[in-house]
Structures are given as structure tokens and as C-alpha cells.
Amino acid sequence: MHYYSESIPVEKMTPEMLDDLLALGWYRMSDCFFTTSFIRFETKMYNTVWLRIALDDFVLSPTLVVLKKKNKRFRITYQKLDLDDEMEVLFASYKSVAKFETAPSLLDHLYSKTTFDNLSYTVKIYDGDLLIGCGIYEKGITALEGLISFYHADYAKHSLGKYLILTKIEYAKATGCQYYYLGYYVPGYTKFDYKLDLSKNATEYFHPRDKAWYRLQNYDDYYDEINIMRSQLRAKEEELSTSGAPYTMAAYPFYDMNIFYDFGDLKPLMMPYFILFGGEENLGASLMEYIYYFDTRQDEYKVARCHIYGFVPNYTRLSDDFFGSQVLVLTSEYSIDEVNLLIDEMNQKVE
Question: Is 234 left (phi over 0), alpha (psi -120 to 50) or beta?
């Protein structure tokens, strides 16, 4: 099984390591680096598409030209990151207008004050002596990643979020970087669409199966793993159901738990969808054995035997299509020939 979601703790980071991890579709989160192919908002699963801007091809769009003129009276400074009370006060103001759930404090959002200090910088925007915007970023040799941008709630009409990203892009280009990494974009979830408006011709996306970056000329031109997985499993569910044995596709809400929890030598299940052997009565059941899933990286169906690792407390099933509170780990996986033999044996038991 491929790892669609991963994280690695990093105690020390060099500029070269930062370049390499970003180029592989990884990103900084707290004191670790992570990558994921999927994200869930409420009851819907989405793809994550990692983006970067090729700075040699970056030019200001008419919209960005207007934005720069609109904010030209503000003063901009760049310096090494040094978290202080002024930044925390600004972050607290930003929380009242943020479109995403935020951490309790800026320090909570980032990391301890000592981690990665050698790579961390900040751009600050002032109106007179008042700090109204701040962007935090990390710089390697050829790459720069934006970690967070936040601004004063009273200045929301100045589009400071996008303006801060623009200041970081221009700084990266001026200091010889080749790429500015934007994090991920989520097709179909409009809160991330602003990332597509920065430079349409210079934006690239990471193809997780090819491990390569391609130009995102058409915003529908991405590797749609969620729909591939879902459609393949729906077709297989229909095919299997003709045998008379009960099979049901389920959404699995804990596909990315390995990002946040160390399973040691165990292999957690990381599929957002799978087919249950046993039908709908096994949705949320306390026992679990075989599941059928589609590996989008190898373009093939597989069967895995699972056991329950534990239960997520106070969890309520998101909908009837979702699996229950059980966290699953893999005991074994089967090849295609073994899959066909296993299905024949299970169908014979039903008969």
C-alpha cells in the first residue's frame, strides 16, 4: 500500500534539505514535514494538489499591478523571524476575520522558537508605525515556502493576505530563488482558489504518481485520485454484488491519522475509500477482516486484511456512508491472483 499521507519529524533543517523536501511535494507543519494527497471537509473528500510558482516565468497580472498600487503607501520590511508580542497581537486580530480554523496563538501555529530559526524569515507591512500585516516564510537555496500570512482585521479590504504572498514571491525572485511553494490547492473547495490567481502561466502542480511537476495551464488538469478511486470502487462494487455476496463501499475518515500519530512498525490503513466484505451491516461494526481497495499509484485493485488498532473517542459517524470510530491497521495484503481466489472462496461460503 502506498503512503498517501506521511509525516517525518525534523529536529534540524538545512537549506538543501528544505529544497529537496519541497520538490517532493512535502511541506512544513509545526516541527515536522508532511505530505498528503487528500483532505476532508465535513462529509466530502477532496484531492490536495501541491503548487509552486516557477519564478523565471512569473510576471505581474493586471490584478496584482492594481493591488500593488492600492497598497503602495504601506512600508515593507524583511528580517529574520523573531516572534514577539506585536506579532501575537496582530495574529489575535486576524483570527476574527480568518476563513480557516486557526491555532490559539502564532507560536502554537508555528513551532518552538528554536526550531528551524536558521531558515525562517518574516515580511512585515506597516501603516505608519502600526503593524498591519505579517508573512512568515522559510528559504532554502533555490526554494522559498510561505508558512502563513496574517493581517489586521481593520485592513481586510486591502487584500493583505494576497499582498503578503506577492511580497514573498517578489523577495524570492529578487534573491535568486527558482521556486515559490504555495502549499496545496483543493479543487472544488473555493477557499483555496486564490492560489490560482497569482500567476496562471507560471504555476506548476506536483503529480504524485509521476513524482514530477507540470504546468497547471488548465485548472482541471490534475491527477484526480479521489474520483479515480471512487469510480473504480463503485464499478467493482457493482461487479461484485452480482455474485449475491454483500459488498459495500465506505468512506474512511482516519486515512491520514499517521500524520499525527506514530504507529511504530504497524501499517495504518490510509485509504479514504474501500469496499467492505460483508455489506452495510459492517459499517461501524466492532469486528473487521477483509477490505477491497484501489491503488491509484499502481492502477490495480487489492485486498487487505485489517484489524482494529483502537477507537477514536467521542466520534460520531459523519454520515451513513462513513465507517465507524475504529482505526484500522493492515495485517496483510494480497496480489490480484490471491484476490480472485479469496473472492471465490468467500462467495462459495455465501452460497
Answer: alpha
